[in-house]
Amino acid sequence: MRFVAAVLALVLSAGCASDVTPTAPAPSRTPSAATPDAEPTPAPRPLAGRVVVIDPGHQLGNSRFPRETSRLVPAGGFRKPCNTTGTSTDGGYPEATFAWQVSRLVVRRLEELGARVVLTRDTNSVRRWGPCVDVRGRAGNRVDADLKLSVHADGSSAAGARGVHVSHPPARAPWTDDTARPSRRFALGVRRALRQAGFPYATYTAGGDGLDVRHDLATLNLSDVPTVMVELGNMRAACDARAMTTSRGRARYARALVAAVREHLAG
Ligand code: ZN
Questions:
Q1: Residue 255 C-alpha to ligand 1 middle, in angstroms?
Q2: Residue 96: closest CA among 60, 139, 147
Q3: For residue 177, what are the CA distances in angstroms to 12, 58, 215?
Q4: 188: CB partners within 8 A, 6+ apart
Q5: What is the pLDDT tens value at each position of the chain, 267 positions in all?
Q6: From the CA of 262, how far away is ligand 1's center (Å)?
Q7: How far, in Å, is the centroid of ligand 1 from the Cα of 131?
Q8: Helix H segments across the chain?
Q9: Of the residues 95, 111, 231, 263, which is catalytic?
């Protein structure tokens, strides 16, 4: 009853009628009583030996470097601009900062679980730009990563547009024919984890199923390791922006992404 009331309060406080009810977390195991001479139990490190690339979208200073960010770079059989500025909430909270903050939470948890994590950028600064999308695309290749996850949020002004969706590459030789299948499996896991955390599928993408097959993204096309790009919501929608602009909301996103990574690597 208390859980139902808490969920109800969460939904009402978010004011977002189409939120899905989060799945109740599994009960945590009760720790056994510690004895004075007990050996400390090492924290479980189920991801030891795994390598994960986290790609926080954009860079805070991109808009100050139009020449650098508009330079054309290889994108997988065609060329496109190095990077874009990203979007923001109506209140001015930038996508680059949101992606960075969620990514940092994801990195911290994955490292606690034993993974080696590679970030595609190490700052979120108005004085910096990039890296370009081709560099992001190849970031997992040289470290032989198990997975690459690109973190973004969308900016749609369409009425009622909100929710999450996950982009994954089609099988397109010679670029993504080798990664398409595991990337789709990862996309399904990311979508499922976000829904279980209470985030509904995007209302404004084709099919309305929270998935988007994209052949035009260098970040996906140039990767030799399974990869997806997640749009964690529409920053222009008040409901989504509320979750994005609070530390509690960002922690919810991060927990879901970590769960998806864990599940994929366990499979
Ligand atoms: Zn973006």
A1: 20
A2: 60
A3: 44, 26, 11
A4: 211
A5: 444 444 444 443 444 665 777 775 555 554 454 555 677 888 889 999 999 999 999 999 999 999 999 999 999 999 999 999 999 999 999 999 999 999 999 999 999 999 999 999 999 999 999 999 999 999 999 999 999 999 999 999 999 999 999 999 999 999 999 999 999 999 999 999 999 999 999 999 988 999 999 999 999 999 999 999 999 999 999 999 999 999 999 999 999 999 999 999 998
A6: 24
A7: 13
A8: 2-14, 66-70, 95-112, 133-138, 180-196, 218-221, 238-244, 247-266
A9: 231
Q: What's the Cα-to-Cα distance from 80 to each of 70, 72, 73, 138, 215, rounded to whole Å?
A: 8, 5, 6, 15, 13
Q: Can you give the pTM of this predicted structure? A: 0.89
How far apart, in Å, are the Cα atoms of 107 and each of 34, 103, 193? 30, 6, 17
Ligand 1 centre and the CA of 236: distance in Å? 13
Pair 58, 128: CB distance under 8 Å: no
Q: Catalytic annotation on 112?
A: no
67, 58 in Cβ contact below 8 A?
Answer: no
Would you say 240 and 201 are in contact if contact means Cβ atoms under 8 Å apart? no
Report the Cα 122 to chain-centroid distance in Å.
16
Q: What are the C-alpha distances in Å from 90 to residues 20, 37, 246?
A: 24, 56, 15
Q: How far apart are CA 75 and CA 125, in angstroms?
A: 25
Beta 211-213 vs 227-234: how paired, if at all? Answer: unpaired
Rounded distance, CA 58 to CA 86, Å?
6
Closest to 107 (Cα-Cα) out of 119, 99, 98, 123: 119
Per the CB < 8 A criterion, the answer to whether 187 and 166 are in contact is yes
